[in-house]
Every structure is written in structure tokens, then in C-alpha cells.
Predict the 3D structure of the following.
Amino acid sequence: MSLPKAVLLLSGGLDSYTAGAMMRADGYELFALTVRYGQVHAREIEAAREVAKALGVTRHVELDVNLAAFGGSALLGDGEVPKNRPLDEHVIPVTYVPARNTILLSIALGWAEVVGAGAIVIGVNALDYSGYPDCRPEYLEAFERLARLATRAGVEGQSIRVLAPLVHLSKADIIRQGHALGLNYGLTHSCYDPGPGGRPCGACDSCRLRAKGFAEAGLTDPAIRG
């Protein structure tokens, strides 16, 4: 009997790695999609390749969709990445990339139809996050409704689900889940503004949320080199 298929949006960060590992443990065959969307922290693309190998995905596609042509985000080189700012989920930061998750999910939806996948997996979480509106459960539910209406699979009664297994977990809980699954977080990259050689800055929102998660989980981050 063949395994159920899922398209995994794989960024190279610890969230997408953990989400993919959880789905693999649940018996899914994974097809990984990594999008080079013009992000200045392109070190994560290298990490995604390593993570895809570790997950044993059936296929890993890297796709170019250059959102930097529009700008509108510090992650696209439009302004500076903020450091050591107060983390407030009610303030949308300048690292928000306009409509990014909608674009990524739409691409994943197209591939899911092609390979016959019944699910798209995304590693967003709504507890420890940077205030991005497209990480909320209500957004994911709305996109799943769109998928039912906008695809042949949905119209024919084979709806493609949007699975976000981390959405109600804290960063510490996510790291505990991954640790229990034996994941090597040394493969992952989270920093928005890495230094030479890809060294994390330690001060951007993503670095601080990651450090907070490891500290609360009582674990050492293997990606931090001395």
C-alpha cells in the first residue's frame, strides 16, 4: 500500500524541519519545495538541501520566484533587518514579506495536484512568532477553503489539506518535539542577517526566538559554534 503524499514547504529552518519530520513519522511520503524568493539570508537554501537529505524526501525542488523585484521587506534587501527590538506580536515588523506565504502555498498547491498529494505541510506557529499575519490559524483555514474551490482535486472531492503541526506549539515545544525525533538542528539555519560564513547574528527576531526556545527547552543549540 502506497503512503499518503505531502508537499513540504522547506525553508532550511528548524520549524520546517520539525514539521516535515513529524509528518514523516505519521507515515507521509514527502516532496520538499524550497523557494528562492530573493531573500538576503540565502544561507538557508544550503540548509534546506541538508535538511531534505536528512528527511529522505522523494524529491526536492528549488524554485526561483524573485519577490525582491517588488521589494517591501527587509528580508528582500529593502531596509535594515532590525536587531534587539522588543518582540510584539501585535506589530508587523519590517521583515514581513508581503503575501509570501500565500505565494508559497499557491505554488505548493500546484505541485500537490501534479503529484497527487493530499496535503501541504507548512512550519508556521502562532505562539512564538514575529507578528506575521500569514502565520495565523485563521489564515491557514482560509487558504484550505480556497484550495477546495480553486483546484480540480477539490472540485472532484479530493481536497488538499494545509497541515501546520506546529501552529499551536511554542518554540520550546517545537524543539522538544524535534529532539524526541532525533533531529540534528545543527543542519538548520534561522538567522535573517548572517555574518561571514553564515554565522548567526544572534540579534534579529529569528535568532532571538530560536535562542529563547532552546533555553526554555533546556537544550543547547548545535548550530551555535564557539
Observations:
- The helical segments are 14-25, 43-55, 100-115, 137-150, 152-155, 171-180, 205-217.
